[in-house]
């Protein structure tokens, strides 16, 4: 697509006209000046929009797939991406607190900003946090307390949603997720979180001793979890899907292979 630009006649009036001290002031001349200035601004705005549209069309890729929805990395901007929906191409912008890397899908194919490596890509939009109570950015994951906590805040569109960690875990702001409490000893007490104190020694010949230096113990009344001690700190372990805990072997097994109490 080509754009032709015509030079406007040299202005006889206005800020770029040569001074004429002998020309009398007249209301019609003032109106003419205003219309001319407005016309110049309008022409410039139209020309700028046309050139931007041409440049964007040249940089945007075409959709390789005629059906479905596919998202593609923007080569220059970390907060934007190209979206193909049934062959129709659109330029999308991530919400505040989100960026695009093609890996996350927190919202509209975008990922949390702390999880994205932008490399040399810049930002097309202002990345200043749009904060609300409990949310630094409109989208993000944040602690819900200054001390050790088994829950956290997940923010979407600036609204707080409380999320619970898996039993035995606490929120770790360093990884924006849940972690073993013994990894946050400065603020967490693993014994209080798990509800178990690891013995200082394990009698030889016992089933628990077979797993030394990480001895195991059953959780009374719980067929799906066990406790293992790591460096003297308890960790609550959950058996995998479809497995139950066998108190005799201190391992997670198929339900049909464990004592009757934990088969169902």
TrEMBL record:
GO terms for cellular component: extracellular region. Residues 60-120, 132-190, 195-264 form the Chitin-binding type-2 domain. Transmembrane segments: none annotated. SMART domains: ChtBD2 (SM00494). GO terms for molecular function: chitin binding. InterPro entries: Chitin-bd_dom (IPR002557), Chitin-bd_dom_sf (IPR036508), Chitin_bind-dev_reg (IPR051940). Keywords: Chitin-binding, Disulfide bond, Glycoprotein, Repeat, Signal. It comes from the Eukaryota. PROSITE patterns: CHIT_BIND_II. This is Chitin-binding type-2 domain-containing protein. It comes from Anopheles farauti.
């Amino acid at each position: 697509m080509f754009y032709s630009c015509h030079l406007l006649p040299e202005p006889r009036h206005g800020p770029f006209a040569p001074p004429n001290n002998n020309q009398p002031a007249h209301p019609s001349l003032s109106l003419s000046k205003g219309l001319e200035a407005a016309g110049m601004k309008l022409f410039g705005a139209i020309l700028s929009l046309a050139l931007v549209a041409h440049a964007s069309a040249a940089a945007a890729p075409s959709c390789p797939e005629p059906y479905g929805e596919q998202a593609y990395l923007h080569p220059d901007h970390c907060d934007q991406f190209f979206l193909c929906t049934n062959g129709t191409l659109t330029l999308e912008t991530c919400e505040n607190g989100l960026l695009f890397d093609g890996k996350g899908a927190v919202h509209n194919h975008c990922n949390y900003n702390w999880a994205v490596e932008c490399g040399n890509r810049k930002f097309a939009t202002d990345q200043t946090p749009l904060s609300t109570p409990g949310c630094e950015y409109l989208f993000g994951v944040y602690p819900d307390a200054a001390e050790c906590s088994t829950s956290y805040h997940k923010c979407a569109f600036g609204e707080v949603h409380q999320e619970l960690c898996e039993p035995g875990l606490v929120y770790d702001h360093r990884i924006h997720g849940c972690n073993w409490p013994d990894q946050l000893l400065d603020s967490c007490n693993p014994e209080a979180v798990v509800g178990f104190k690891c013995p200082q020694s394990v009698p030889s010949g016992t089933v628990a001793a077979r797993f030394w230096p990480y001895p195991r113990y059953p959780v009374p009344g719980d067929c799906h979890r066990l406790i293992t001690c790591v460096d003297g700190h308890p960790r609550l372990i959950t058996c995998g899907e479809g497995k139950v805990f066998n108190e005799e072997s201190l391992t997670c097994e198929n339900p049909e292979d464990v004592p009757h109490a934990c088969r169902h």
